[in-house]
Amino acid sequence: MDGIRANGLAALQAYGGAGNAKSALETGNQLGGGSGVDAIGQRDSFADLVSGAIKSVEAKGVETQMQSQAVVAGEGNLVDVVTAIAETEVALETMVSVRDKVIAAYEEIMRMPI
């Protein structure tokens, strides 16, 4: 599973490094729920950013489930379902990767001498 996460992150970094930094940034903003700055210029709290990312991934999962049900009912397009599943998988893998980095940073801080 770690290899899959590493591949997804490497793909996102390669995509951003290939001259498509704007698209990679937009993908990151979709996962994080925005740029971190609200309408009046104040920064969102870390909890708000995490909550937005979780809600975004959850919404992608619900959308994928609805498209899957439409295909089963004979009303949807199989290509759209496969695309939605891939997008949801990338979003979830990215969120898990960020979680792992946050935990590693926390553990590093806890090991620092006082």
Protein model, in words:
About 14% of the residues have low confidence. It contains 4 helices and no strands. The protein is elongated, with a radius of gyration of 17 Å. The protein is mostly helical. α1 packs across α2, α1 packs across α4 and α3 packs antiparallel against α4. Helix content is 78%, strand content 0%.
List keywords for this structure.
114 residues; mainly alpha; 78% helix
Concise account of the structure shown:
By secondary structure, the chain is mostly helical.
What spatial form do the alpha-carbon principal axes imply? elongated
Uncertain regions spanning at least 5 consecutive residues: 14-29
SS class: mainly alpha
> Helix tally?
4
SSE layout and pairings?
Elements: H1 2-17, H2 21-32, H3 46-72, H4 78-111
Helix pairs in contact: 1-2, 1-4, 3-4
